[in-house]
Amino acid sequence: MSAFLHDRGVLLVARGDELLVDDVTGTADDATGLPCTPAARFQIASISKQMAAVAILLLVERGVLRLTDPVTRWLSDPPPAWSGITLHHLLTHTSGLGHWAEYPAVDLIEPVDPDDLLAAFAAVPPLFRPGAGWHYSSPGYVLLARTVERAADQPYAEFLAEEVFAPLGMTDSFAGPAGGRPHLAVGHEGGRPVPSWDLATVSMGAGDVWCTGADLLTWLDVPRRGRLLNPASVAALTAPHAPTGRPGEAYGYGFFVGPLAGRRQALHHSGDNGGYKAFAAWLPGTDERLVLLTNQAEVDPAAVTSVLNPDRA
User: Fold this and answer.
1) What is the pTM of this model?
2) Would you say residue 259 has pLDDT above 50?
3) Which of 111, 288, 289, 298 is the most buried (most CB within 10 A)?
């Protein structure tokens, strides 16, 4: 299966509780020669949005938040143009906020003051009124993470560690900067290491989580087995809330919902940070799970789904 990973990374495929593919290959850090092992931790990039969605739903279950809350309730000095944006709109990418291309003033790598980041978002008018369209928005998930911090009265990364990762047994996962932790895969592009994006502020909630392959496989048990959340929250997490414009596909809360690899229904998401690519999917009809983590920018996460249909590859 190494061909799917090119030079480096982890590929896991499970059906039910049986692990069918467990492929670990290449180097985690070319500079030190550190090999990729099952303990290697990778940035999962936009798959991190699922953790932000679960954090919001946990606070909804506790009565601290409502999905109909205007996000302006939880932000200091928000612009009037955001007044109609609810947490539901942010979760489903129907808020009207743009993605990174719409905010050229934001540097994905350089650290920034959190209030300055929100000011950069606020300086760009929404693309449409809330609920009137669908446009993928990482900045929207940054606002969700800020909401978690305000509502829970603790740092976002700390909330994930205590309320999300620990109860699931995801002991090798964390959010935010690496902070000297061991077993880190360094992002590579063109065969060379590249600097990490800022995970403390710019990508908080949108692309800030590190996982091992095994931990990300465990994560898929949240929708698969209803772990951590109550049934109503799992239903909200996985519902096809907002059509994306692609045939048969909609967005739930942090998940794309729709066809994948010839199957009619799947929950999936890809991730793309500088030097990292990631993909995770659960196919309910066959109870298959797929996880790809690689620290090589040139890998196409979509291509790895052919492992689910080897006769079509």
Assistant:
1) 0.96
2) yes
3) 289
